[in-house]
Amino acid sequence: MSGPGTGGGGSVLALDGDGLDAAVRSALRTGEERPPRPGAFAMCLIFCQRALFKIRRDPQQVFDAVLFPVMVTLVFTFLFGGAIAGSTDLYLQFLLPGVVVLTVVMISMNTGVALNVAVSSGIDDRFRSMPIWRPAMLVGELLSDVVRYLMASVVAVLLGLLLGFRPHGGLLGVVAALAMVQVFAFSLAWVWTALGLVVDKPQTIMTLSGIGVFPLLFASNIFVSTHSMPGWLQAVINVNPVTRTVTAVRGLMAGDPTAWHITTAFVADAVLIAIFGPLTVYLYNRER
Amino acid sequence: MAPASDLAIETSGLVKTFGETRAVDGVDLAVRPGTVQGFLGPNGAGKTTTIRVLATLLHPDSGTARVCGHDVVREAAAVRSKVSLTGQFASVDEDLSGSDNLFVLARLLGYKPPQARARATELLSAFGLEEQADVLVKNFSGGLRRRLDVAASLVVRPDVLFLDEPTTGLDPVSRSRVWAVVRAIVDTGTTVVLTTQYLEEADQLADRIAVIDRGRIIADGTSDELKASVGSNALRVRLRDPAQRGIAVRVLERELGPDGEITADTSRRGHSPGVQPPGPPGGRTAAGPSDAGHDGTNNGGREGGPHNGDPAALSMRVTDGGDGKGVERATRALAELTREGVALADFTFERPSLDEVFLALTGHHAETRGKAGRKGRAADPQGGRDGS
Ligand SMILES: Nc1ncnc2c1ncn2[C@@H]1O[C@H](COP(=O)(O)OP(=O)(O)OP(=O)(O)O)[C@@H](O)[C@H]1O
Ligand SMILES: [Mg+2]
C-alpha cells in the first residue's frame, strides 16, 4: 500500500518547488470565476451523467443484472411451460412481458445499495456542503438507473424474440410497454432508496430487499395467471404494483391494451412515488 | 465583501450533542478573514463535529455560528456558496477517475462541459496529478488522493476552506506538499480552518491555534502566546562524552536551581518528533543546524531509535520566573558546564513544544489518545524509502 505511494514520492519531490506553487496560485486565480449556478433539473442531469461515468467504466454490471432473468425465462419456459400453458411456445408469449418486469425489479434494488454506499462515504458530505439542490443527487442516481433498466429490458426482449416470442402489438406496442416498465422501475426504486438511507450497511439492504422482493414477485401474475386462484389471493395479487404493471405491459405487447389496466398501473406508480419519494428526501436531508 | 461582521467565522456557545456525548460543548470562536485557524486536539476532541456544524452539515443544539456573516442554520444556502469542505475521510468519488471527479464538481458549480474539463485538467496539473487524470481514485495512493481531495475543494476558490486532518497518514514529503498548498491558498485570501492532531502542523501553518479537548476550547491564541502561557523554555544539551552525564546533571541542577526541573531526555523528544522539522528550525538552534535541516526526511530513525534514552542527551525546563531571566540563567548554566570541563556536542534553547502546552493545559499528553496514528505515520516513510 505504501509502496506505490512513496514510489511516486520521488516525482513529488522533484515537483516540490516554486514551479508547482506558481501553478497552484494560478489555478486558484482561475477559480475566482463564479459561473451562474445550474438549475435544479440541470443538476439532476449532471448527477445522472456522473452515475453513467461509472457504468461506462464497468458495463459488466448490466449484463450481470440480466443473467438471472435469462435463467428464469429458460427454466420456466422449458421446464414448466408445457405443464402450465400446454406448450412452451404459448407459455413464452405469456411469460416474457413478466420477465421484463422481473428484470427491472431486480436491478432497481441496486439503487438502494448505490445510495447507501454514496451517503456513507465522504463525498456526500462534500455535496451537501455545496450550493446544490439537495435531492439532485438522488434524482440523478435514479435517472441513471433508468438507462440500466432500459439496457437490461431490451436484452430481455431480444432474448424472447430469439426463443420465439412474437408480440402482436408490434414495435409500437413493445416500445410503449418498455416505457411503462421504465416508469414502474423508477417508481419502485424510491422504495429501495428509502431503505438504503435507514440501514447502516449495503449487505443489509440486499438481505432486506431480498426478503421484500420475493413475495412481491411471486404474489404477482408474472408466472401464472390468477384465474385459478382463490378469491382472497386474487385480491392480494391484484393490488400488487408488479401485477398492475405486468398486466398493462402484457396488454401493450400483445396488442390489446385496456385503458383500465394502463391507468391502474400508473396509479400504482404514483402511489409508490407519493409515499417513498418524500420519505427518501426526508431521510436524505435529515442530519447524518 | 463581509456583510454583517468583519469576521470570517464567529461562533458563540456552540453546542452539539450525540445522545450522552457532548461532542462540541460551548465553543466560542472568532476567525479573521485570510488567516489560518488551527484546531488542535486528540481523537474524539470534537474537531470534526465543529467543522461539520460550520459547514452546515449538522445543526447545533444551541449557540450560534456565522460563517462569512451568514448564520449556518438560517442562511445555510448562503454559507454553502462561500465554503468548501475537505472532509476527514476522502471526499472524492472512488469509482471515478481524477479528471471525472473534478469535472463533475465544475459542472455542478456552473462550468459548461468544455470549460469544466479544462478546469479539471488545470487543477490536476497544478496539483501534480496529470498522470492520474484517467486513473480511478480507488487506485490512488493516500497522498495523491488527499491532493485530489484538496483540489476538489478549489474548483471555485472558496472564501472559507475547511480542511479536516488533511495530512493524517501521509508521509513527510506529501505532508509538506499539502502544507505548501495551504500556504498558497491563504495567500489568495481564503480563510482556512484546519484540524490536526499534529502539534508541528498547527505550529507551521496556523496563525491562531485553538486547543480543543472534550468539546471545549481550552486555549486559543497564536502559537507563541500558547507557548508563553506555559512560561517555561527548554534547554537541551548533548554531551560529547556520555560519561560526563553525572557532572553535567550536577552543574545544571545547581545553576537552574529549584525551577530548572531536569527531564532525563528520553520521553520528551521521543514524544514530539516533529517540533523542529521540516520547516525552518525555529532560529534558536545554536549548533547542529544541518542535523535539524535533515530532520524532515530523516526523523524516523533519529527520533524513534537510538535517541530514546540517549545517555548523551539532557533536557532542562527553564522557567521564566516572571522576570524574563530564563535566557540569562540558561546562558550561565552553559558557561558553567564549559568551566567544569563538560564538552558539548550541541545545545538548543527552545520555547516549549505544543505538546508541553497541551500537557500543561490538560494534564495529559496530546498523544495519549492518538498514539497509534502517529506511530504508523512515523514508520511509513522509512518503509517506503527502503522499498523504492
Ligand atoms: N454521528 C455521531 N454519532 C454519535 N457520536 C458521534 C458522532 N460523531 C461524533 N461523535 C462523537 O463525538 C465526539 C467527538 O467526535 P469528533 O469526530 O468531532 O472528534 P475529532 O476531534 O474529529 O476526533 P478524530 O481526531 O478522531 O477525528 C466523539 O466522542 C465521537 O464519538
Ligand atoms: Mg475528526
Mean pLDDT of chain B: 77
In CATH terms, the superfamily of the largest domain in chain B is: P-loop containing nucleotide triphosphate hydrolases
* Spatial separation of the terminal alpha carbons of chain A: 31 Å
Strands side by side in the biggest sheet of chain B: 6-7-8-3-9-10
Class derived from helix and strand content of chain A:
mainly alpha
What share of residues of chain A is helical?
over 70%
Largest sheet, strands/sense/barrel of chain A: none
The CATH class of the largest domain in chain B is identified as Alpha Beta
**So how many helices of chain B?**
14
How many helix segments of chain A? 13
Oligomer: heterodimer
The percentage of residues in β strands of chain B lies in 15-25%
Low-confidence stretches of chain A: 1-16
| Domain module tally of chain A | 1
pLDDT < 50 runs, ≥5 residues of chain B: 264-308, 367-388
According to DSSP, the number of beta strands of chain B is 14
Write down the Rg of chain A: 23 Å
| CATH fold-level name of the largest domain in chain B | Rossmann fold
Task: Describe the protein's architecture and organization.
The complex is a heterodimer of chains A (288) and B (388). Chain A has helices spanning 2-7, 9-15, 18-30, 40-57, 60-85, 88-120, 122-128, 136-163, 170-198, 202-218, 231-239, 241-254, 259-285. Chain A has 288 residues and is an all-alpha fold. Chain A has one domain (38-285). Chain B is an alpha/beta fold. Chain B is 39% helix and 22% strand. A 6-stranded mixed β-sheet of chain B has the order 6-7-8-3-9-10, sandwiched between helices. In chain B, helix 8 (223-230) packs across helix 13 and helix 11 (289-304) packs across helix 14 (371-387). The relative contact order of chain B is 0.13. The chains are: A mainly alpha (288), B alpha/beta (388). At the A-B interface, helix 1, helix 2, helix 3, helix 4 and helix 7 of A face strand 6, helix 3, helix 4, helix 5 and helix 6 of B. The complex binds adenosine-5'-triphosphate and magnesium ion. The site of magnesium ion has 5 residues of chain B, from helix 1. Adenosine-5'-triphosphate binds at residues 18, 21, 23, 41, 43-49, 88, 197 of chain B.
